[in-house]
Amino acid sequence: MDLEDHHPMPGSGSPSASLVGRFLVAAPSMPDERFQKSVVFICKHDDDGALGIIVNNKVEDLPLGQVYKQLGIEVPSAAAEKPVLFGGPVETSRGLVLHSADYKRDGETLLIEGGMALTASLEILKDMAGGTGPKQAWLALGHSGWAPGQLDREMQDNAWLVVDGDANLVFDADFPAKWQRALDRLGGGDARDGVTRRFDPASFSHQTGRA
Question: Least buried of 6, 50, 169, 179, by fewest C-beta within 10 Å?
Answer without folding.
Answer: 6
